[in-house]
Amino acid sequence: QVQLVESGGGLVQPGGSLRLSCAASTTIFSVYTMGWFRQAPGKQREVVAAITSSGSTTYPDSVKGRFTISRDNAKNTVYLQMNSLKPEDTAVYYCNAYQPFTKVHYWGQGTQVTVSS
Predict the structure, then answer these.
(1) CA-based nearest residue to 66, from 111, 12, 110
(2) Residues 6 or more apart in contact with residue 49 via CB below 8 angstroms
């Protein structure tokens, strides 16, 4: 079982920045594909960024160029740097860990990001 603990959410004005962090309780963090998802009220959960064990990253068009995912395997932590935030980025953001050998997903508890003036 992997525990994921997110931090860094909050209230920010449009155009502002936030950095989310997700710490994982596993000794084999480096093998996991890590991702960030978000879910706004009344909408489905969607992926906003993912990073593989080799460091390859993917983003949907809605955040490409504004969000950056990174990982520090020495700290068992994945980050999401969010710049040029828009009101439509308002959502609960969830950290996800995918173990490619067992094909099991783990989820964090979520952190609220609110973009509003």
Answers:
(1) 12
(2) 35, 36, 57, 58, 59, 63, 67, 68, 69, 80
CA distance 9 to 105: 22
Predicted confidence (pLDDT) at residue 72 exceeds the cutoff of 90: yes
Six token digits for residue 115 = 């973009």
Q: Which two tokens stand for residue 17?
A: 């920045």
Neighbour count for residue 92 (Cβ, 10 Å) = 18
| DSSP type of residue 25 | -
Q: What is the mean pLDDT of the chain?
A: 96
Of the candidate ranges 21-30, 55-64, 73-82, the one whose mean pLDDT is the lowest: 21-30
> Angle at CA 39, nearest 5°, toward 98 and 7?
65
